[in-house]
Amino acid sequence: MSRASGEGGGDLRRAIGLRHATAMVVGTIIGAAIFVQPSEVTGQVPTMLGVFAVWLAAGVLTMFGALVCAELASNYPEAGGVYVYLREAFSPALGFLWGWAMFWTMHSGIIAAIAVVCARYLGFLVELSDLGQKSVAVAIIVILSVVNYFGVKHGSVLQTVITAGKLVAIAAIVVLGFAFGGDAHEAVVGAAGTPEPGSFGVVEFALALGAGLFAFGGWHMVTYNAEETTDPRTTIPRALVIGTLVVTACYVLLNAVYLYVLPMETVASSDRVAADAADAVFGRGGGVAISVLVIFSSFGALSGIVLAGPRVYFAMARDGLLFRWLGQVHETHRTPHRAIALQGFWSSMLVITGSYRELFTRVIYTEWIFFGLMAIGLILLRRRAEVSRTYEVWGYPWVPGIFAISAFAVVVNQVISQPAESLTGLGLVLVGLPVYFIWARKPIATGST
User: Fold this and answer.
1) If both were cysteines, with which of 128, 355, 403, 429 could 123 make a disulfide (CB 3.0 to 4.6 Å apart)?
2) What's the mean pLDDT in 171-186?
């Protein structure tokens, strides 16, 4: 069976162009994290130099990862992205573990987490009970699943519109913050006087970098939709590079605004730094406006994440590593409709039970193990010279090498900081190995398209 067709339903429909793919990269990365995560970074590296060094380093490392993905996507323009790259470079077992962790914890968990964040911020505007928040979160997941069920075109257009609105809102925050934040800035300078410069070490910088990289999460997800992208060998690399540059610029500018209108210690201690910055400039109404932006931004990020995930489960089913019926393409809408429905169901269950918190926090760091292996996999595939390269990563082999070392450093730092949680999370992922051997009773073809 060709990898280009779904079980029993024909081909996926190619409807994602460069604009939509770039919007997916930007919209998936920029969620709620940049409106809260700067406090984690600033708390670890409480100096202007340290803060901007972390965000720039996180942007550079994300770009390195994007470049690695770009070459792999140009070589293997198949649905599944990282799953496919690990399968081709190492073995179907490693690819299966990625998909296993995605479904049960990483991807479904982040869908549940972002849906809950969206519902909680809505609760800031309209009073909602705990049950009400969960109901809203589930409703958001269901709505976005239905949109994507009826066609990738619908999902990608929605993503593009929301991302455009999000970028306009971020631009407004930056412009208005610098234009009208003068009084707040003068108050900050007057209160601070000439403070002693803060200090930090390598450990603190590494922890801050991990927090920054979390805010850049999701850059790889556009590769999951390669079979629904027009001219994926060139479109996906361009979307990854352009999208990562746009996000890095947004993050640096937003942090500049935060530090312009708020004292360093306030940025470090705040649990809603964007709202506090808006309040400092415009009064209490500013916080309400930011809450609306966080809802809008979270919904946009969730739209891209819901769109991307089912393509991995679809690819695994097509390879015989999941139930064959998950690999079916809808005859009319040309979407992996059953994989979309299953993802929506499990993510909703994680919201209802609240179990996503424990699972997600324990396992999310493990994706960096796979990212590091993916970069090494690119080097291995290059040495095998099995495919011609439409796109070649800049700075090879230094870029994939530095990215791999950095990815493993993130993991080691997490294990040292939280050994019990980290080892438990790794154990949850490795439980997938015996499941793989049950499924893989016959050889799995791993040839490229």
Assistant:
1) 128
2) 82
